[in-house]
Design brief:
6 strands; three-stranded mixed β-sheet; 52% helix; elongated
């Protein structure tokens, strides 16, 4: 477009230069004759256009921040207040977490202290139950026929009654000793249990240790019918599982 405008200007200048000599010659030959004026083309000034599109007034107006918004963004008091509020929220969250951690620590400490108290005698109890087992075996070896006279006649000799008074007294003393000992151990959390007492308990792998299985008429499968070694609990925890025989009819 610019080149075209330059070419047009050059053509107009050439036409003007051609017409000027003719005009002077005609005026010399006949001064009285008036030569009609020739309408010269007007000089065309070049115009330049930008190739970039004009930015819309809406975008320019929207991109410029409003005076109130700019004032609020630059307000140091509001910025400082927002910073303090965030700091307060952060500190409050840390405080609540610290309180929760401290309470959890207190609960764990209480449980650990109680567990230490409950099971402080675990090693001692493990060694003591062997003596309790020996006392129980000694009492079980005495047959009931040796403890009470078969004949109520006092004139009958002791040899015929198969009765030993001294053995009976010894048995009674040992039995009383066992009763007192087990009561004392129970006060400290050590208890003895026999799963075959009464109707017999169902086998529980957490409390019992099955040493054998056999058929027993009139018993349900999985029932404990015999105890080889009694079990012990220390404050609800199994110190030693009971060794038992289990019914298996199928």
């Amino acid at each position: 477009m610019i080149q075209r405008s330059f070419l047009r200007q050059a053509q107009v200048l050439k036409q003007i230069s051609r017409l000027q000599p003719l005009r002077t010659a005609s005026t010399i030959q006949s001064p009285s004759r008036r030569i009609p004026s020739i309408a010269l083309p007007q000089r065309i000034s070049p115009r330049y256009y930008s190739a970039a599109p004009e930015a819309s007034t809406d975008q320019s107006s929207s991109s410029e921040p409003a005076p109130s918004e700019a004032k609020e963004e630059q307000d140091p008091t509001k910025l400082e207040l927002e910073s303090k509020n965030r700091e307060i929220i952060d500190l409050k969250d840390r405080y609540l977490r610290s309180v929760a951690d401290f309470r959890n620590l207190q609960d764990r400490t209480k449980r650990d202290i109680q567990s230490a108290r409950d099971f402080a005698i675990q090693k001692f109890a493990s060694d003591l139950i062997e003596s309790v087992d020996n006392l129980d075996r000694a009492l079980s070896t005495v047959p009931p026929s040796k403890l009470q006279p078969q004949n109520s006649d006092p004139d009958t000799p002791a040899e015929e009654n198969d009765y030993n008074k001294d053995l009976s007294n010894l048995y009674d003393g040992l039995k009383m000793t066992e009763t007192i000992l087990m009561g004392t151990l129970k006060k400290h959390g050590l208890e003895r249990f026999d799963p075959s007492e009464g109707e017999g308990e169902m086998f529980n792998p957490n409390l019992h240790e099955a040493t054998f299985q056999t058929k027993v008429d009139g018993k349900e499968d999985g029932t404990v019918f015999m105890t080889q070694q009694k079990g012990f609990l220390l404050n609800g925890r199994v110190l030693r599982a009971a060794k038992v025989g289990v019914v298996k009819n199928s």
